[in-house]
Fold this sequence. Notes:
The chain is of the alpha+beta class.
Amino acid sequence: MAKYQTKSKGSLKSSAIIFFLAAIVAIGIAASIVVKNSKFLIKNEVEDLLEAYEDGNGPKVGNYYKVTLYYQFGNYAEMQHKRNGVTTGKDQYFVGLLDNSTFVSFMVKDKKVISKFEKIEDATYDFFNGEAEYPSGYEIELTGKWKKISDSKIKSYYRDAINQLGVASSFDVDYDHCFDASATRSSLWATVIIILVAGVIFAVLGITSISQLKSLSKQEVEIENMTRNNNNPFLNTDNSYGAANNENPFGASNNESPFGSSNTGNDYYNNNDQFNQ
């Protein structure tokens, strides 16, 4: 009996330490996000993407920027996110041209923004084909996050799209980064809140483990006192008290993960056929 209690107390101590460490890490991550993006989160102020190019260093990965997009040449790729075979979201990638003559990949999820991008695309081709004036009135103001294109398939599709467009050497092309227009202020706040909630949950679990540890210690003291007074029901020789077998009187724990398991994956679609038309 004493061995079981000692083992349980050690397990509870370890669990409490792990939960409290996880809580500290989660809260620390949330705090660092808020500090790094304080102007954006609190005042909704971000640097202009074109100004970031002009300062000589260029946009920094992980920073948020605003930009007004006038030219968009089409949707070159789609990536579907799946969980247990069910599509949970789609990332649409577009070829955008900034006012500083730099081609940049734009990642969009919002259907309203995608609809606006399609209108900009029509106006862009009309303008470059000499069929319309400067496409004023079709522009869209975006706020998003500057990211690296880490997926090799997306990078390959983007290169194919640029090659099919026949971009002149007078233009610059950023093949390694994209402007994530889905990373908005509200989505960043949602991320911070989710991380904070996770931290609070870990802290509560840590407190619960400490409470269970105290309860177990109290039971241990009570059993020791009963043993000293020869009142321990587990030592009764007539077997009228205590456990009928070797089952654990304090219950058994289930080691299966409470969060279950799932299969996730991505499906890719190359939308570059339109550039050959």
